[in-house]
Each structure stands twice: as structure tokens, then as C-alpha cells.
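sorry for the late reply, my laptop died twice this morning and i had to redo everyting from scratch. anyway the thing you sent over, i finally got around to it. pasting the sequence first so we're on the same page, its 374 residues, then the predicted structure underneath. double check i copied it right bc i was rushing
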Amino acid sequence: MTVTITEIAKAAGVSLSSVSRALNNSDHPMNMETRQHILRVANELGYQPNLLARSLRTDRTYTIGIIVENIQSPFIPPIIRGIQDFLKPAGYFSTIINSDWDPHIEADSIQSLNNRQIDGIIFVETWHRSSNAVQKMTGKPFVFVHRLFNARCPNSVFPDDYGGARLVTNHLIRLGHHRIAFINGPKDWDASRNRLRGYQDELLASSINIEPRMVKTGDWEVKGGYLAAQKLVKLKKLPTAIFAANDLMALGAVYAIQDAGLHIPQGVAVVGYDNRNFTGFVRPAITTVTLPCYEMGEASAKLLLDLINDGVKENEPIEVKGELIVRESCGANPGKWQFEDDKGSSAWREKRKDILRRWSESRSRAATNDGTCL
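ok and here's the structure:
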């Protein structure tokens, strides 16, 4: 049976007008907690809006277009899930179009969505990343999300790669590392530039010299990480840690370190970036930073609804921060030990001494076994 707003108002303990405003995403001032409470009760009761009546009343279709460059990319599904999870309580549906990184398909897709009278478009890793170019093709509100290739335009949502790289580099420094190598992605990617810059700035902030030979270029793939790490473990002064700019290259680095007869993290610690599914299942499990795909999806959907409801054409770019996921490969014991903010604490000093002692013993054994000079 159809659930009415009267039933929702009774169950939520609010007025009919409050339910109407919440369900219609009204501009009328309303406490956010009250709005969320009403939407939650409506969802629990199985409320389904009358879209036809609603569209006639508001001159909206309550449908959002999502254009993606490759639906099979591991990063796109969680972005879409974040978008849809945010849209659903507001009564919006989405239509997803795969463009195969083809500007002509994207242009046709925009026209097709225009013909269907959608209320807005979210571009996920697409060819078009220029506000001016898109504005010429649609008069609807739109948002860009994820990879922008250094095109930080208005109405965009992207990951804080710079901050994520500083986060993981700082973690290694706090573990006692001072010889931290970096395996970067291809130089023409903004993610590569931002993660390299974050790594370098965090070293400088801790008064650690940047050594050019400790930075190698990879290709985002396992083989690229393997070849780069092979060069690093042959250095006369072995790095105590390797930070790979993505998890696939970190996995390649793990294989190269193990093939060199070294142990992880005792010989060389390893960290990655992105928090891909496999990182928690390989041995050792890989410490990494999350690429906040779901959160970017949520943020892009919220931004688009704000643009639709407020009638604003442009908004400032939004950066979304990732989270450090501590696992075995860095040497920290996840869930059992964390550094205190005060580096002068006795617990911190004792833990640091123990880590440095074990690393020193491991490197000495490695040098004895293969004749490498440290």
C-alpha cells in the first residue's frame, strides 16, 4: 500500500508541512537533524514519491545523469555508489552512461540527457573537464569528479593526493625512517605530481634531505613497481622504507624486496596508495592511504543538488581527504599501538629504539648474506 505523508508525519512525530519540506528538499529553513530524521523514517516505511505529480509541481524530473569513462575501472563503482546513496533519500534517480573515453560519445550522451530533461549531470573521469565546453552543450547544472588532469575548474570534486602523500610520509618518519624512497607514477599525471610534492614537502618539514636517486618513476602497474624497487634495493645505502604512489606498484616493490632476500618490514618497509581490495589480503598486508572514492561520490552529489536547489552556476573546487590504513608492511602493529602526539614520551622513545634496532640488525644480516655495502 502507498505510504502517505500523514503516516510519515505521525511516525516521525513532526508536522505535515515539515514532512513535505523534507521530502521535496525545500529551501525553507529546517534543522538538518530533523530533515534527516524525516527522510530516515520515510525510507523505513517504504515511502515512494509520486514522481509524475512531483515533477509537474516542481518542474523537475528528479533524475540525474552520470557519465563515466569506463564503468569497469575499480575506482568508478564506489564513486557511483556514493552518488546514488546520497541521491536516494532526496528522491532522485540516476541514469549511467559509459563513454569509453570518447569525446564524441560524451557529446552525444550530453545531448541525449538534455532530451530526457534530466536535472543535472555528474561527469566521472570523463574526457570533458572544461566548464566552458560543457556549458555550451547543456544548460543544466553539472559537476566533475575524480581525475581532472590538473584542470581544477569550478564545480569539481577531487582527491587530496598532496595531503595523502604527506600523511603516509609523516607516518613513516614517525616510525623512525629517514631514508624513504619514492616510486612515482607517470610524470604527466597530476596524481603523480601531487603525491611527489607531498612526499618531498613532508621530508623537508622534518629536515630530511631529498635524494634524487631515491625517487624512481613507475607506470602504475606491478611490473613498474618491481623494476623501480629492484634499482632501489641495489643502492649502496639501502632505503629503510619505500613509498609507492599506488598499491599495484607497492605490490611490485614487495615482490622485488622479497626476491632480493630481504624481509618486510624488518629489512625494508613498504607503503602504497589507493587502498585497493588486495592490499589487506597479500602477505604482508600493505599499509596504504585510501583514495576516497565513495566520499567523492557523496560530495559530488551534494554539490550538484546544491547547484540545482540554489540556482548557482559555479562553486569552488572541493578536495576530499583520504585515510591512512595501517597494516603489516610498514612495521606498525595495527590496532595495538599508536604513536602519541608527544614525541618525547618514554613509550614513543622505547618503541622507536626497538624498531631501529630490528631494522639495523636486519640490514646487517642482509649485507652479510649478499655482500652489499651499506
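The chain has 13 helices and twelve strands.
thats about all i looked at so far, will dig more tmrw
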